[in-house]
Design brief:
Order of helices and strands: HHHHHHEHEEEEEEHEEEEH
Strand content: 25-35%
CATH architecture of the largest domain: Sandwich
CATH superfamily of the largest domain: Urease metallochaperone UreE, N-terminal domain
Distance between the termini: 89 Å
CATH class of the largest domain: Mainly Beta
Shape: rod-shaped
Largest sheet: 4 strands, mixed
Strand order of the largest sheet: 6-7-11-10
Number of strands: 11
Oligomer: single chain
Helix content: 25-40%
Radius of gyration: 32 Å
């Protein structure tokens, strides 16, 4: 369907007629009014081309593709003559493409586990508003670039449309850190819990609760692992592990009676070792 058909005007319509038809069509198909978002995007694309005299002329009169005859020009290079056929590159093998559009997109640490459905509006270099409704997969990393083909710049209708590139920014978690597909955290517990044994509750960023048993006599700095509770790998979807390091906290005791009891206990332990 041509841009003229999209707006419901003839190819010799005046700028005023094009603008009037655009307003009517955009009101009818606007997503906020229950319209079809895909049709709305087509209407925007048609208007952005037909409202601009230069773009309209280029659309109405597309330039024919230049023909290269093997013996037509004396200064033609070997690559120009045979590049497409023999894989050397050459002008015939090149494709002209509009620019990519780059947008920074933020995710929470929790969203790394489940991915996120993206629904955003963004402005193209041509000035047209584009709507993206897609999914960012689980497991992406800080700085990863998620590409959506054919969602970028479309300033030149005869050229291949550019891509939309989402540059991922991940908000740090308060207590967990990422290590590849694994996640790590540190739990501070009393030195007495390390000596006598204890059970601590661990809550992962995915919202799952686990009771972690710390055996008696555990050394400070010991790392415990919970299998399969890390971040899913972006390709295989296989999750990493959760690693919990336990560090001891020495309580501040001011009571002399308690301190004396602890000293007596220490003396008894020294006799056994």
């Amino acid at each position: 369907m041509s841009y003229y058909s999209t707006l419901g005007v003839s190819s010799n319509a005046t700028p005023q007629e094009i603008k009037k038809a655009y307003k009517k069509a955009s009101m009818q198909h606007h997503p906020d009014r229950g319209g079809d978002s895909n049709e709305f995007v087509k209407i925007q694309e048609a208007y952005e081309t037909l409202r601009d005299p230069a773009k309209k002329q280029q659309y109405d009169n597309p330039q024919p593709q230049q023909q290269h005859h093997p013996f037509g020009q004396q200064h033609q290079s070997f690559e120009d003559m045979f590049g497409g056929a023999f894989g050397f590159g050459g002008q015939q093998a090149r494709q002209i493409r509009n620019r990519d559009v780059n947008i920074e997109y933020g995710l929470t640490f929790e969203e790394l586990f489940i991915g996120k459905t993206v629904n955003i509006q963004y402005r193209l270099p041509s000035g047209r508003i584009e709507i993206l409704d897609a999914a960012v997969p689980p497991g992406v990393k800080q700085g990863d670039q998620v590409r959506f083909a054919g969602k970028g710049d479309d300033s030149y209708p005869q050229a291949q449309r550019g891509n939309l590139v989402l540059s991922i920014k991940v908000r740090p978690h308060d207590t967990w850190k990422r290590d590849g597909d694994n996640i790590t955290t540190t739990q501070n517990i009393s030195v007495f819990d390390l000596m006598l044994g204890s059970t601590i509750e661990v809550r992962t960023p995915a919202g799952r609760n686990f009771n972690l048993t710390v055996p008696k006599g555990t050394k400070s700095g010991t790392v415990f692992s919970i299998t399969g509770q890390g971040i899913p790998n972006v390709n295989s979807r296989r999750p990493g592990n959760a690693h919990i390091k336990v560090d001891s906290i020495v309580p501040r005791i001011q009571d002399e009676t308690i301190l004396q009891k602890l000293k007596d206990i220490k003396d008894e332990i020294d006799k056994l070792t």
